[in-house]
Fold this protein.
Amino acid sequence: MAGILEAIWLKRAHRGPMDSRSSAMLIVGKGIEGSVGRSSRRQVTLIEREIWEALMRQTGSNAPPSTRRANLMVSGISLADTRKRILRLGDTRLEIAGETKPCERMEEAVPGLQEAMYGNWRGGAFAKVLIGGEIRVGDEVDWL
C-alpha cells in the first residue's frame, strides 16, 4: 500500500527555522537542495504523520510537525525497521540508512517529547539520495 508525501521542510542554517516548501530538489549524494546540516549518510530525514500525531496526544501538545526538524513527512507507510530499504518518492529513490534518535532540542520544544520518541523508530529515519529529482507534496511514496 502506497503512502503520501505530506510535507517538505528545508533548514536554512544550523538551529535555524524550518521552511515549508511545496516542492524541492533531491540531489544524489547530497540531500535536499538548499538545506543545511546534511552528511554523507544523513542526507534527508523523515517522520511519519501518524507517529507525530500520536506523540502530540501522548505529550498533550499541539506542536507543529516541523518541530521535529525533519525534511520530509510521510503518511500511510511505516518507517520502523527499514534500514537498507529503498523508498520511492515520486520518481526519486532514497535508501534508509538508519533511525533518527531524538535530541535534547525535542525536550526543549515539548516537555516529555524526547523520551516519548525513543523506541521503535518514533523519531523517524534518515536516508541517502540514490536517484535525485523534484519531489512535491502529494507525491506517492512506497517501498521497492
Observations:
- Residues 49-59 form the longest helix (11 residues).
